[in-house]
Specification:
Layout lengths: L3 H28 L7 E5 L7 H12 L5 E6 L8 E6 L2 H11 L3 E2 L2 E2 L1 E4 L5 H8 L9
Antiparallel strand pairs: 1-3, 1-6, 2-3, 4-5
GO molecular function: pre-mRNA intronic binding; U12 snRNA binding
Pfam family, one: RRM_1
Keywords: RNA-binding
Amino acid sequence: MASPSATTATATATATATATATATATATATANGGMPNSSLYIKNLNSKVKKEELRRQLYALFATYGPILDVVATRAHGMRGQAFVIFHDIAPATAARRALTGFLFYDSPLLIEYARTKSRATLLQQNGPEGLYQAA
């Protein structure tokens, strides 16, 4: 049987390793575009493409990875060249992000990150109409 001090040392080492792994995973996720989310933020899009054409093409490109709830692309002054693709689940969003980052789309490489917050479509799907008013 191990001595109490050896057991304590092992527990401390395990706790330290777990804390280090968690901190590393969080830092990596932040450096890679935030914590995994079912919504993807896409930037470096060609701002000359019409909004409806952009939405259709993004839907066609990302739908191969899983069910999509919505594609949000606006031509407002601050949002040109950017869009959001909202997937039904995190797994297809992660697969699409890994596969399509750097993909040439209208002669520009896609820059894809996880969205900072959950989309309204995701909150509505998960919690119903009341989910939109709850603090996320």
